[in-house]
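Hi F.,

I've been meaning to write this up properly since the lab meeting, where we talked about keeping a consistent format for the predictions we share between groups. The idea is simple: the sequence comes first, exactly as it goes in, then the structure tokens exactly as they come out, then a line or two of notes. No screenshots and no reformatting. I'm using this chain as the first example so we have something concrete to point to.
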Amino acid sequence: MKRLVEVFLILCLIGANRSNAQNLVVDGSFEEMECPENPINSVSETPTWYAINSDFYYISEKCPLDQTVTGNVNALNQPVTAQDGVAFASLEAGLTTNGFFSSEGTGIELTESLEEGTFYYLEMQTIHYPEIMGPDFPDEGCEPMPTRFMNVYFSSDKINISPETVFTPDGILTTGITSNAQLKLTDSAPNIDGFRTNQWNEFWNCFEGEGFEKHMAITGTFGKTTDTIDCIIEEQPGRIYFGGHAIDNVKLYKIPQSIDSTYIICEEGVTVHLEDIVVGPFFDKATYLWSDGSEEISRYLDQSGLYEIEMILPCVVVPIKLEINKTTCLADIFVGNVFSPNGDGTNDVLSVSVDSPYSLQSFRFDIFNRWGQLVYTSNSTDDSWNGTVDQNDAAIGVYTWLITYTLDVGPNQEIHLAGDVLLVR
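Output, unedited:
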């Protein structure tokens, strides 16, 4: 005889080819860097990040600055705290009188080379500092802002990007850039809320890998601004604008080519949340389209079958196949209701018989006397009670048993069964 006291059933996600999210950027939050050994926290190279064009500045609550020497450094005189944690990277930039914009940057070797034909998701937090006019800036009527603000480059080798300059008697004239890297992504959204006001803005995009990309660099703009601005004077040396950028929480993730998942549902239906299947920071950047036209990211399903969904990103559409299988998530368990431990070779022990297509993850068999005292316990279905307590024969009478188990179709959800047995001799 057995009596069901309490059963906890839950959907089970098994055999799932879920998106395996792993950031390919080591220390994208800049939290693990050591404080530079100089008064302005200027960084040329660390075990992870290295400078592009010139040094970049490491801004961290754990690294004090020498205020007596930072007054002329725009990147060090901004009322900015880290977007998350205590640290970020700061990059100075500037515009020359002849209309050429150049910037500091920082690069890193990725944990693995990008794969040809595979799509990737990039996300980072950025700040664009308000501009500071240099001594050569015209009195009025000039807005020589660049058309691009943040650039993301890739290369097979350590990245070098530097301006080509000409030294003239009157100063420095920038005429172009030299680079061994390919420009892949740009952030060119100056009209978003908080732009150039020392507020963090999220930049994200995705792209297709070509197979050569082992290093990634993030810089401000390099290049010529528009030639129609009155204050830009060809062949004129000098700087008319200073500014800069900050970056934090840099993430680069591989986007899965497809996602296959199987749910086993027990008895009733279940609400499927796509965020449990699509793992990665790109989840909430995508839109989702079910084959029946639904665009929900959480949906109640109570019928077995194959459901097809598209995860839609700007660069790629990822197919998701979701298989729903209904099954019985209970094991068939038998415990006898009478046993006679008298040594006659017949029905001398009390054992548990378990029949299930799924293996047991855990099992416990407890027996209590009529006063609620535990007289026997076991964690194996191979064990049995021989009717003794502390090597003495247990009293004749009714005993209560409790079985607690979990199956490998559930994420450690316990199922409880209880019943009673009569001990006779």
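Notes:
The domain at 330-423 is CATH 2.60.40.10 (Immunoglobulin-like).
DSSP finds no helices and 34 strands in the chain.

If this format works for you, I'll send the rest the same way.

G.
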